[in-house]
Specification:
With about 700 residues, the protein is of the alpha+beta class. Helix 4 runs antiparallel to helix 11 and helix 12 runs antiparallel to helix 13. The termini are far apart.
Length: about 700
């Protein structure tokens, strides 16, 4: 397992934030004995101690007692493909002056090749002390901070852990926790409180069982298909297309016999698929750390703003104003390895070289796939499905053309059409950039990008694309368009028709619901025409379980708990294509109290309502936003972290039928709502006996 399995940019950063927000606090001060925060799962017991050196100078020692067969790594950074380095940090405090450097003391230091990372590293077995020098101007005042470490055996690694500490230097006592110690100012709410684990909800015994439909498999197939389409688009870019005949010819003509050349070409394609599948492994590790991590990543407003900026950069690159390339040293090194090693290893490095060389064209497409998969339900497996489709599309030509080399003669020649494909992708990247900024705008309720402005920007982008396809505008690497090819003309006409389809979305009339695009623009109610409503389709809705239950008890109607999200594409599809159907809308209006709970709502709770929640598994979570509340309730009460999730409850909170998720079939969704009404009739009959 390479470091990429556990340390990958923004996702690893998000994982460390989540680790900091859950876990078992170690109550009270501890003596110098090493302790494990989770005895069942931890492999390292830690203690923190302080020894005076001279004057105000103290040595702070972080002692690790390591289980047999496991190791902790040095503070040295061994590169992006190496282990996560240990680090020991101090909070910025007026009475603490921290000296640079960390001293590593162990009788069991190992320097050499690590079988997990296949590189030379320094690690420690059995026990180790990491020592830092600090000046303590007031030793009686506690010092605090955090340390991070990674532990592995010879086969696998645990995700990096972040531990917060608090040390009283003069007494030698310390405290450790997986949550920051300033959480002491928050009140604590436990699972037994019933605030998030609703007492009357029994998922195993709904009043009218209906069977739970799982749309995960169809969703995986959809992501695989989208990834495959993305891979086909990548094949048509200038970075990849010219490589197909060259590489296939190299294998088929450069081998001793045709069978060996065919075998090598197919192996080359298989390695391409494997490389892209490996890219998704880190997200399976992150998903095992915290079940809500993908919702946290996909709805993080600043991450969406980051994607917005990156996609703008990708678009400008595709337009030809500059090239995005990986460091040439990486490519040269892979190329050298491909030449140096023969056989299977050499073919693998050739495949890796292709992945690196083609990054300037495939990177933006992969970025779109990555961001889209993390936004969708299913997290890591959807990303694996998308990456698998992308890798398969890239790999297929090398195997197929090796099997049927005569097909090479039918390939179109490289030319200006390849640059046209890149420019078209650039316009698509611009449209996706608008979507990511919209996600941030929605979850923070900025009100900057209402539905009509979003659609207006897409219209402008669509007009620009149509003008480009019709040859009215050009970019730096374009040749003059003397005559429109039929395919280019056809795409131009389709784009113009798409722009015409968007125009009614700018109005307030009945045609503004662009059902073919539902989920991409902001909700219908997030509009300049509807300034006050936060409820879909003009329905009356409530935004807390307490308000919803009061309204339900007053009216005698059951509750429809709509676990939704501002950035949830499938939620908008349900509202705009299923709920909008007259028969469904009438049932919602006449028979249910709608409770829409936005799990990604980043609005802060009042300070007095913020608290630490200890869930039913003993983990801690800091509840500071509206979304924190509803995401936690969904997980605790309904056993799910994906949206949408629809739950039907009686006024007393009993589960009327099995919850359902994304249900695009209006008849199936109507049957779900009817089961809820039947459940109320059953409860009424039981009460009258």
């Amino acid at each position: 397992m390479k470091r990429a399995n556990v340390r990958i940019g923004l996702a690893a950063f998000a994982a460390s934030l989540l680790l900091a927000g859950c876990g078992k606090d170690q109550p009270g001060a501890q003596d110098a004995a090493a302790i494990k925060l989770d005895p069942a799962n931890d492999r390292v017991a830690w203690s923190v101690s302080a020894v005076p050196v001279e004057g105000d100078l103290w040595s702070i020692a972080f002692h690790a007692q390591i289980d047999e067969g496991w190791s902790v790594y040095s503070t040295e950074n061994f590169g992006d493909m190496g282990p996560w380095p240990s680090s020991f940090l101090f909070d910025t405090l007026a009475h603490v002056v921290v000296h640079d450097g960390v001293e590593e003391v162990s009788g069991h230091t190992i320097e050499g090749n690590d079988p997990v990372f296949d590189m030379t590293v320094r690690k420690f077995k059995h026990d180790v002390d990491f020592k830092r020098k600090v000046e303590l101007l007031a030793p009686e005042v506690p010092i605090s901070g955090a340390f991070e470490y990674m532990t592995c055996n010879d086969e696998t690694c645990l995700p990096p852990a972040k531990v917060f500490y608090q040390l009283n230097a003069d007494s030698g006592t310390f405290r450790l926790s997986l949550v920051p110690f300033d959480l002491s100012k928050y009140k604590v709410v436990s699972c037994a409180d019933g605030r998030y684990k609703l007492a009357n909800v029994d998922l195993e015994r709904p009043v009218v069982p209906g069977g739970r439909e799982d749309h995960k498999n169809s969703s995986l197939l959809m992501l695989f298909a989208l990834g495959f389409i993305g891979g086909l688009l990548a094949l048509l870019t200038p970075c990849v297309f010219p490589m197909i005949p060259l590489t296939v010819s190299f294998f088929t003509k450069g081998s001793e016999d045709r069978k060996k050349g065919l075998r090598n070409a197919i192996t080359y394609g298989a390695f391409i698929l494997l490389i892209y599948l490996v890219f998704s492994i880190p997200f399976h590790v992150l998903g095992s750390v915290n079940e809500e991590i993908f919702n946290e990543i996909s709805t993080n407003p600043w991450l969406n703003v980051f994607f917005f900026v990156i996609f703008i950069v990708f678009a400008i690159s595709f337009f030809g104003y500059f090239e995005i390339t990986l460091p040439s040293s990486w490519v040269n090194r892979m190329d050298q390895n491909a030449s140096r090693f023969g056989g299977m290893i050499g073919i693998f490095f050739m495949a890796l070289t292709l992945a690196l060389v083609s990054f300037s064209c495939t990177g933006p497409i992969l970025g779109s796939l990555l961001a889209g998969a993390l936004t969708a339900d299913g997290g890591a497996w959807q990303l694996t499905a998308g990456m698998g489709g992308f890798g398969l599309a890239l790999a297929l030509p090398f195997g197929l053309f090796a099997l049927f080399p005569q097909w090479l003669n039918s390939l179109p020649r490289s030319g200006s059409w390849l640059n046209t494909v890149k420019v078209v992708l650039g316009f698509i990247e611009l449209a996706l950039a608008i979507k990511f900024f919209s996600n941030a705008d929605l979850v923070l309720n900025w009100g900057l990008l209402k539905r009509e402005l979003f659609i207006g920007l897409w219209i402008v982008i669509g007009i620009g694309l149509a003008l480009y396809l019709f040859g009215r505008i050009r970019f730096p690497h374009d040749s003059p368009v003397k005559k429109l090819a039929p395919l280019r003309l056809g795409f131009g006409i389709v784009t113009a028709l798409f722009v015409l389809y968007l125009i009614p979305g700018l109005t307030s009339g009945p045609w503004r619901n662009l059902k073919l695009l539902s989920g991409f623009p902001p909700p219908l109610f997030y509009s300049y025409y509807h300034q006050t409503s936060e409820c879909p389709l003009g329905l009356v809705c409530h935004h807390s379980i307490e308000e919803g239950q009061r309204a339900s008890q007053a009216s005698g109607k059951p509750m429809l708990i709509d676990n939704t999200g501002w950035a949830c594409v499938n939620c908008r599809k349900m509202e705009e294509t299923v709920w909008s159907e007259p028969e469904i809308l009438k049932i919602l209006q006449d028979h249910y109290v709608l409770v829409s709970l936005y799990v990604d709502d980043k609005r802060e709770l009042p300070k007095e309502e913020q608290h630490v929640y200890i869930n039913c598994r003993g983990q801690k979570k800091l509840i500071t936003t509206e979304g924190n509340r509803w995401a936690t309730m969904q997980s605790e009460s309904f056993g799910s972290v994906s949206q949408p999730l629809y739950v039907l409850l009686s006024p007393e909170g009993q589960l009327l039928t099995d919850p359902v998720g994304y249900t695009p079939d209006k008849d199936a969704y109507g049957e779900f709502l009817e089961r809820g009404i039947q459940g109320m009739q059953v409860l009424g009959a039981e009460a009258s006996r």
